[in-house]
Structures are given as structure tokens and as C-alpha cells.
Write a structure and sequence with these properties.
Bound molecules: iron/sulfur cluster
Number of strands: 14
CATH architecture: Alpha-Beta Horseshoe
Strand content: 15-25%
Shape: globular
Oligomer: single chain
Radius of gyration: 20 Å
Strand order of the largest sheet: 4-7-8-9-10-11-14
Number of helices: 11
CATH topology: pyruvate-formate lyase- activating enzyme
Length: 335
């Protein structure tokens, strides 16, 4: 499932970079309409509804320059975000990007990767200890890796700079470009999966869980560190049976692999709820505020999470099932 955009915005300055030229050629080969822009993205038709605007942007690739001076921190997953891509062509209704990319849900790839890796190296030098970079804090980088090759570069970077590790998470399965690399075990690829109930209702534009697990097994055979994210975890009528079956599927696919689990329960912000109501008016996502409790997030957003008793029930269920079915796996966190 390779992302083929229907429109590309290319920043003129990006054409001064090798990756910018490479992308321009590739976009032309696909006969995708191109608009060259200066620093400000062209505006879209003001008559579009919020839903039309959302889907228009989701099919748009932006090729631009990373201009910030600093990387954002990235707790608890890593020390810093690695800003290679932002946005994702997937159409998951519950997507965490609704909160901060609500007005611009296009996929943007940055072409000045030398600047980005130079900056990354400075962080490693300054810290004087192992530094972990997260390449998927605001994107699913696998979705555009066949276009950019930036993850391959990042993997190479970790092998050239001591004390560096890379992590990223994906719901996509196109991992063949990551095979055969000398990654030296410094990259961790995590696959985000969910129960059939959630996948069927809320995940569009991404491959099925079965394909993601096949990709995980393939990546694991290549010697990469592999992690599983179960996210977002929902409580629905048959949740115990379905999540048990999901963990069994992981155990069957990677019975002996050293594996980590990250367990993230469903949460939403009021900003995301407004986007979901506009874009997916028929959505069955559970978004009733009076059934949740408030939690303050690290970026100043207030989230609505499951209530304390429900969280306890979920946590003890997942702890039990993972320990039983995959005794060697490590649960990194449950939130
Ligand atoms: S794959 Fe991840 S980043 Fe992409 S739309 Fe789905 S939840 Fe969002």
C-alpha cells in the first residue's frame, strides 16, 4: 500500500537539495500535478467543507525544508523527535494527529536531511550518553519511505554516530526498503495493531493487522529490535476475547522474538473530537465526555481517558495476557 498523492506542493528552495530534485522527478514520473510554492503553501478553495478540505490535504504531498532550530523532546518514547516527515496518508478516525495537525493534515517531507542529521549529531555530542530519536512522533514515516529513503538514512546515521538509537512506529507494512541494511541492532521498529473490532470500524487507508504482523516478523528476522504497540485500546462489548486473540496472533507470528509492548488506551482531546465530528460524522468512536476522566498531557492538551477503574481493569488484563502468552516480552508502559 504505497502512498500515491493526487497533488504535490514543492517548495522552490527544496529543489536546491538532491532529495528535492529526486522527489520532483519521481512525482513527474507518476504524472502527479505539481505546484511550486515559495515559503507559504498555496491556499485551498475556501468553499471546501471541513471534510472535503481534510481529504484534499490527505491526498497531498508537500516537499519542503525543515527550518526549526531545535528538535522537540519526546517523552516517554525517546529523547528527541527526528523531524523527517510530518503527517500521514492514513485515514484512521481516532488518529492522534487530529489534535495538532488538524488544519494541515497533508504529508510533508523534509529534504534538507543533512541539516537534520547535523542537528541530531549535536544533541548526541552534548548529551554525552546514549540518545534515542523517535522518527514517528508526528507522522507514519513508513508511509512515504519509498518516496524519500529518509529512514534508511536515519538507520545509517545511527551506525555512524556512537551512542545513538532510532525508533519509529508504523501501521504500514512496506518494509522491504529496510531489509538488507547494516543497522547494527540500533533501530527499533514498532508495529501498531488493534483488535478486529477497532480495525474494521476506525482504520482506513492502512493495511490490515495481518499484514502488519507479517511485516513485523520479517523485520525481526532481519535482526532489528521489534516492538508492538496496541493502540488505541478500546473497551467494547467483547474486548477481552478480541484482545486475547490479537495477543495470540502476535505470539504465533513471533513466538520467540524479544519483543516490547507499548499499551495505549483510547483518549481524545476536544479539538480532535471537533475534527472527527466534521470529517467522520458517522463515526462510532466512543467520544462521550461524561464517560471519561480528564488527564493533563505534556504538551498542554487536556485529554479524556478511561476512568480509573476501567484503566485498572484494562491494565491487569493486558499484563496477564501478555505475561501468559509471551513470557519473554517486556511491557514498556501502559497509559
Ligand atoms: S496510521 Fe497512524 S498516523 Fe496514520 S492516520 Fe492512522 S493513526 Fe494516524
Amino acid at each position: 500500500m504505497v502512498f500515491v498523492p493526487q497533488l504535490a506542493f514543492v517548495e522552490r528552495k527544496a529543489l536546491e537539495y538532491e532529495l528535492g530534485q529526486h522527489l520532483l522527478n519521481k512525482i513527474r514520473q507518476h504524472n502527479i500535478p505539481i505546484e511550486i510554492y515559495e515559503r507559504r503553501l498555496p491556499s485551498v478553495d475556501p468553499n471546501l467543507t471541513a471534510r472535503e478540505r481534510f481529504f484534499h490535504f490527505k491526498r497531498t504531498l508537500v516537499v519542503g525544508i525543515w527550518r526549526r532550530r531545535e528538535f522537540q523532546t519526546c517523552k516517554p518514547s525517546a529523547h528527541y523527535q527526528l523531524p523527517l516527515v510530518s503527517g500521514c496518508p492514513g485515514l484512521c478516525q481516532y488518529c492522534y494527529l487530529h489534535t495538532n495537525l488538524a488544519n494541515r493534515p497533508y504529508v510533508k517531507v523534509y529534504v534538507n536531511t543533512d541539516d537534520i542529521f547535523d542537528r541530531a549529531q549535536k544533541y548526541v555530542t552534548a548529551r554525552k550518553e546514549e540518545t534515542v530519536f523517535e522518527a514517528s512522533a508526528t507522522s507514519d514515516p513508513i508511509a512515504v519511505e519509498k518516496w524519500t529513503g529518509s529512514l534508511r538514512r536515519a538507520i545509517k546515521f545511527t551506525t555512524e554516530v556512537p551512542n545513538t538509537r532510532l525508533r519509529f512506529v508504523t501501521k504500514f507494512a512496506d518494509v522491504d526498503t529496510l531489509l538488507g541494511l547494516d543497522h547494527q541492532g540500533k533501530t527499533e521498529v514498532r508495529f501498531s495493531i488493534n483488535a478486529h473490532w477497532a480495525m474494521q470500524r476506525f482504520e482506513q487507508g492502512v493495511p490490515p493487522v495481518r499484514k502488519r504482523l507479517e511485516a513485523a516478523a520479517c523485520i525481526q528476522k532481519e535482526g532489528y529490535r521489534v516492538g508492538i504497540l496496541i493502540a488505541p485500546i478500546f473497551m467494547f462489548p467483547d474486548w477481552q476475547r478480541e484482545y486475547d486473540s490479537l495477543i495470540q496472533d502476535v505470539a504465533k507470528t513471533m513466538p520467540t522474538a524479544p519483543l516490547t509492548f507499548e499499551l495505549i488506551t483510547h483518549r481524545f482531546t476536544m479539538r480532535a473530537k471537533a475534527v472527527i465530528n466534521d470529517v467522520f460524522p458517522e463515526s462510532e468512536l466512543p467520544l462521550a465526555e461524561d464517560e471519561r476522566q480528564l488527564k493533563y498531557g505534556q504538551f498542554g492538551y487536556t485529554k479524556l481517558v478511561y476512568r480509573r477503574e476501567q484503566m485498572k481493569e484494562l491494565e491487569s488484563f493486558f499484563q496477564d495476557r501478555i505475561k501468559t502468552l509471551l513470557p519473554k516480552a517486556e511491557i514498556l508502559y501502559f497509559v
